[in-house]
Structures are given as structure tokens and as C-alpha cells.
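Subject: for your reference before the review

Hello V.,

The reviewers asked for a structural picture of the protein, and I figured it would be easier to keep everything in one thread rather than splitting it across files. Below is the amino acid sequence we used in the manuscript, unchanged from the supplementary table.
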Amino acid sequence: MTRYTLEQKHAAVVRALALVAMLLAVAGNSLAQDGDGAGEAVPIRIDIARTRHTMAGGIGASWHAIGPTPYWYGDLDGRENRICRGSGFGGYPPLGFTKAWDDLRAHARWLGLSFCRVEVDVRMYEPDRRRFDWDNDEMKALDRILDICRANHADVFLTQMWQDVAWNAHAGVSRLQSAPRSVDDFAHGLGTLLERLVKTKGYTCIRWVAVNNEPGFDGCWWLGPDKKAAGIMPAVRALRAELDRRGLGKLSVAGPDSFNLAMAGFQAEDKAVGALALHCYEGEAPTELFRTATATAAARGIPVFVTEFGHFFAADCEGVSFAEGGPRSAAPKSYAAQLLNAEKVIRGLNAGIDGLNRWSFINRGDLDGQWQMVRTWNPVTWEYLKEVRPEPAPYYAYGILARFTARHSDVLDTQCDSRRVFAVALRSPKGDLTVLVLNKSERAEPMRLSLAGLQADRALWMYRVTEDAVSKPDYRMEPQRKFEIGPARREIADTLPAGSITAYSSRRLAHAEPGVAAE
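And here is what came back from the structure prediction:
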């Protein structure tokens, strides 16, 4: 056994205490730098004279126009029939449910959805080669959805989800998953649809189109004759040529509409590509992916969108089925998922993303998770609801992001170094200012918001959502407080509740009024 003198023991204790003090000081400095020290306000600095970028789109959600009829595919590759077409099909009410459709219109207006991804498939409009059907219920529903988008001045990103027709499928490949056997026929059919929608029906709100949803992986909806993921660039180029031939040069062809820019042989540098589109379901905001994509788009002078995003929190639900009421089924509509969605919106806008589309506005909620923002379907009794009401957590938590944000807004220079508080500032085309602030921590955070570049006095109205607030049946998104700012008073102080999303806006918008969407 080693023996130490009293002096040696004393010196060791002194060294240990010094080490503890140093570690505490480092931790304290880290917290202070992060704005998360006890009682220290998180600084958010905005320069309204500096614009990072101007959004080519806005903030919106998906509208699936594909109807409720289930199909059995005996030759699926890596998918099961029940959820082989994803979670959105059959989400909209029957055409005869007048009140439900009126409710959908009102909810879309209230939310201020300004960038909507509308989804179709070939089977809806071209069930056989060169034979088009414009009068079935699915096409009528598509017209209604586009009518709502047009009335709300929303920009539309049209996506052809899959083919689902035998006449243009590769031999031995499921018609749902097959890439087109004839690319020329594929481009002709989609071009015919777009010419009808844009020229005949006047839906000039359609600005971008994607040839397929999520290509580029095993079991996707774009498989070649070998049942392997095929490249989409031949279809992108063929569609670009078809649109030009039809005088639809203002429509941009986007891609890859999948999880990264390298999927399905996508070539962002190709001149046929007019926009980039990504999907995001990670358990964190993929800031580096956003930055890489925006840099690539900037080099081409084209926009980049997140055309699907959300989150399962599946890591917490391993082995749990999608059955109604199960944790994994409900996870996408949980309040925790909405906080992550808000972080993706805020970080995406700051990184240069031109528009974000949440999955999804309407959804059955009994296929691969409860993604819906409004309730159109009873997944227990399998009946459509005759009145459409909000799914509170996703509806209000996304509404506070979209409701005050006009399409084509400027994203202003915003500095916030916290790891738990995130902020973005936007200026509408007419000059209204909105600052969106997320506090994803489990405690209240004091905050200081300073604005440089102010030329005149103005008011900022504060709106807020928390899990407790939106859980109450009488919740209303009314302005809760008024802040006065100006050249002589450029800073405001507030406390952000734990797990909250706050909007500070120069718009005073009562709960009963529609969202902004466009100006």
C-alpha cells in the first residue's frame, strides 16, 4: 500500500478542487455562450436591412388527389399492399360532402398555406395509352384542390407519385412501381395533363412539376426492367422538351423529389432541371444537406424546396404496429414532432430553402402514421367525416409558422447562437415583419430580440403555441401582447415558455381572420 504524507494529501485535494473549479467554469462559459445560463437571456439579433434570400415559394402542405379505392398488387417488390401507396391516398372527403369541402377551404385559408404539393398518378387521367379521362371523381377532386390553391394564391408543386398503369410498365415489374417502359409516352401523357390544367383550366398556380415521388432506392416507385432503382433524368429531359413543345415554358421540371440530390441518377446541373426538391424525415434538422442543396441551386440560379418533411419518432416506437391508437401511429401528430418540424422550417429558411411543404394537410391517418393536420376520416369506423376539424397539435403548431408568412417573403439576416432556441425573420412583399422563434428546451428561456436597420416606429404583436394551450378546446390564436419598437427602442424582452413556438408579427391578425398566404 502506498503511503502519502499529510502535505502530499493536502496538495492532491487542492489540485482536485482546482480541476473541479475549472470544469465548472468551462461549463458555465459554454452555457453563457449558448444563452442558456441561469437567468441569462438568449440574444436574437436581426438586421432588417440585410436580406439573406427571397423565397421562390412559401410554407404549405401536401394535398393528395388520389382517391380511396384500394388495389391489390400481387407483384410488389419490398412493399406490402396495405401501405404500398403511402399515407395520403383517400384522404379527401367524397365530392358530395359539401360541408366537409367547405371546411377544407376554410382551414386552408386560415392556415395560410402558400406552397402546396399536389399529388397525382397516371392511372387517374390516362388509364390506357393515349386515352384520357378527365371526368372521374379523382380528376374532379384534383380540380377542387387546385381551385382552392388558386383562390388562396398558393404556388403549386405538382408531383406524379407513380404510374400505376400496366400499359406503360416493364414486363414482370409491378405497375405501381415500374418506371415507364416508354419515356416518350410518359412525357406525352403528363404534358397533356399539364396543358389541360394550365391552359384549358387556367391553373397557372402550378409552377413546378416532378416526374416521380422518392425515386432512387430498393422498392421505390421508379424501378427498371431489372427491378432495380432506375434513373429519372431521361424522363426529366423528355418532359422538359414536351412542355416546351406545348408552349408551357414557364413550368419548371424539378427533382429528384427524394432524400438527397444524388438519388436516381439526378443531375442538378442539367439544363432541363428548373428546381431542386428534397424530402426530410430525419430526427434532426439536416442543416448541412440544406446548405449543400442551396449552394447547388444558387450556382444554377434555380430554387430549392423541401417538398416533404415530417418525423415518426420511430426510434421510440420500435416493434409497435401502425394500428390506430398505437404510439408509432400517433407519433407524427404528437406535439414533440411539431417542435422538430418547426426547427426544420426555421433552419431551412435560414439556410436558403425557398419553400417547405409539410406531409400532409389531409390524410386518413390509419396507413403509415397519423400525419393529418385536419380530420377527414374516422380510422376506427372507416367512415368519412361530414365536418372537418383541426388535429390540434399539428394544425396550430404549423399554423403559427404558415399563417403570418406570405409567399415570396424576404428572409432577413438573423443571428441566434443558442442550441435550444431558434429564430428566423421574414419580411413580406408589402413590408410586414414576422419573427418566428422556437424554444425546444424543457424550461422557460428569457430572450432579448434586437432589430437593426429600423427606420420608423412599429408594433409587433405576439402569438404563441404550447402543448398545454393547444390541448384546450377553446384555444384561439389571438395576439397576446403588443411590443413597441423603433429607431430609439430597438430591443424587446420576453420569456419563451418551454416547448413553445412564438410569432412576433407586425400583422394584427384575429383568430377568425384568414392567414396571409400571398400579397
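For the response letter, the relevant points are probably these. The first strand starts at residue 42 and ends at 54. The longest helix spans residues 6-33.

Happy to draft the paragraph if you're swamped.

O.
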